[in-house]
Amino acid sequence: MSNGKLKGNVSQGWLNGIIGVVLFSGSLPATRIAVLEVDPIFLTVARACIAGILALISLLLFKEKRPAKKQIIPLLVVVLGVVVGFPLLSALALKHITSAHSIVFIGILPLATAVFGIIRGNERPKFIFWVFSLLGTFLVIGYSVAQGLKVSPIGDNLMLGAVILCGLGYAEGAKLTKTLGGWQVISWALVFSLPVMLPLTFVYRPTTFEGISFATWASLAYVSLFSMFVAFIFWYKALAQGGTATIGQLQLLQPFLGLALAACLLYEKVSIGMLAVTLGVVLCVAGTKKFAR
């Protein structure tokens, strides 16, 4: 591949990555709204079930070939990481901690993605990449801790597990995308989970739907359509185009985009400090982009 074509591919990866992050940023606020009225397990299996049905229709419509045998286990790793692991553990965590507290862990997600990208994808970013990556991570964590967050060991452990599994799922999916295709990876992962998620949706459904607000149903629709399906189409393609470790740093912006949405949806105050740290994180992301390769 020529140098010009490679740069164009990476630039397209950054664009797709930004779109993916913007769509992902609504996940935690939407999840927080939903778990106030419905069981976290129901939310997890229902969103996977709805997205799985959409994925199955898409695969049949475009007559996609089935994955090769060697791709089955990696797809199951994707299922474990992003279809089950992160949605379930983060939903359970948000029963114990606030959305602001979860920023501490979402801030670690780019680092986790980079580490798994190196392990699974044989990527070798420059040393300066790690400087900007760690600086951006510490900015996010430092801002969150400075807010005087309450500590919940259960919520913290659940979010830590969610971030680790999510980083693994991102890296494995990015590696598969190079041979299977971006939207095909998340689609097959969702379809593989459907035989389990479909019956569990009925098992864990609420005893009555009376009293469940429109906001909760809208949140379920968002995490099912965008968080679980559409966002991954852009995200996996971006990771494959620009490198898992590199593009993964865009996730440093996700907590602040999420807080901005929380300010609109949950009426949380957006401070000057948040805006200042956001600018710092943007500069760190720019640094990782410049020195990634």
Give a written overview of the molecule.
With 293 residues, this protein is mainly α. The chain is built from 13 helices and no strands. The model has no long low-confidence stretch (mean pLDDT 86).
Summarize, please:
The protein has 293 residues and is mostly helical. It contains 13 helices and no strands.
| Sheet with most strands | none
> What is the element string, with H for helices and E for strands?
HHHHHHHHHHHHH
Question: What distance separates the N and C termini?
Answer: 15 Å
Shape: globular
Whole-number mean pLDDT? 86
Strand content: under 5%
Q: Rg from C-alpha positions?
A: 18 Å
Class by SSE composition? mainly alpha
How are the SSEs placed, and which strands pair?
Blueprint: H1 3-24, H2 27-35, H3 40-61, H4 69-93, H5 99-106, H6 109-121, H7 127-146, H8 153-180, H9 182-203, H10 214-242, H11 244-247, H12 254-265, H13 272-291
Helix pairs in contact: 1-10, 2-10, 3-4, 3-9, 3-10, 4-8, 4-9, 5-7, 5-12, 6-8, 7-13, 8-9, 8-10, 9-10
